[in-house]
């Protein structure tokens, strides 16, 4: 099994740390109690996490895991014959080298209905699963869209309290909408460094009843819908939402209504306890091809082989930023106006050193992407009918060297052989 890293944490300013302190106090006053066995299991998980972090890792193993079945009858995606692709061989080679040199496990390019290249590095093989990290967050948005298409959820603007009925009557939690679980505007306590076993951030991640902790104890520190604050708890709640809305376990719903529908291979997902609730925000173990297919699904506006799986207009909602963060939509990052560095936390507070480099504007203004920890990315470019995937471990951070989020898509777009009359898309605008 590949190393499973703790979800991305962000270094916050003194203001954010003060907010985190408020959250810790709020949890200290919580009245919920758990069994001794549950607390022991939580302690064991926390100690494993701390041990892994000493070596720059996170949890290397997790128990229990629940199978998420894929389509066992799926066919391989069509592949172009050598020299017959739409992208110059030199551009593909340059992009492959960049992926290889940046600690990647797999690199794939799909364009115009066919795979132009698919390469695996180190000991990775087709079919091997990997830790999704925050690639799982776009999956939560697709799962919600599928539930809306099935009539199980009315709309993105339905109150979550219709399903998490424990929130009914709560002056703040009752205002959290379904869309707020996807666009990081729930008002929940922001993600922050968490070093103690008592910290609510760790309990909401590792406890065998983490779902109950999030529902009952996780602090709401801002009015829902008024601020963007990256945190994993909002995404974790999507599993609860889907299960209560559909009556189907989260992993089974992903299997039945997403993976099998798009011909994808399956894998596993973390579950907090036997028969418990899945971790929706981070811990879905799938092969790279599954994430490529998910990118193709949203590139095709929620259709697969002519059949609509997501409501009409839903992908447009996914790729629309908010006034509180123009670079984040529903589980995905969007191009917006060019910025040399784009981060993950609140744009007004995230330190420059934590933001991802974009050496130049994207060459397509409609580009949006899945972007998980360790710079695991799936670029979706509708105007080019192209999806680009890079997954693996953290790229090296040598002196003067860092991951450039613009390199792969721009290198490949510059290498496209355009047909007569075909024009390049409009680039990402500058201020």
Structural write-up:
This protein is 30% helix and 13% strand. It has 431 residues and is an alpha+beta fold. The chain has one domain (14-66, 87-414): Beta-lactamase, CATH 3.40.710. The strands form 4 sheets. It has a 6-stranded antiparallel sheet with strand order 3-2-14-13-12-9, sandwiched between helices. Strands 1-5-6-4 form a 4-stranded antiparallel sheet. Helix 3 (89-101) runs antiparallel to helix 12 (407-414). The N and C termini lie far apart (44 Å).
Outline the secondary-structure elements.
Blueprint: H1 14-28, H2 36-53, E1 65-68, H3 89-101, E2 104-111, E3 114-120, E4 130-131, H4 136-149, H5 180-183, H6 200-206, H7 210-216, H8 232-246, H9 250-259, E5 267-270, E6 284-286, H10 288-299, E7 303-304, E8 307-308, H11 314-318, E9 333-334, E10 341-342, E11 356-357, E12 368-372, E13 376-381, E14 386-392, H12 407-414
Antiparallel strand pairs: 1-5, 2-3, 2-14, 4-6, 5-6, 7-8, 9-12, 10-11, 12-13, 13-14
Helix pairs in contact: 3-12, 4-8, 4-9, 6-7
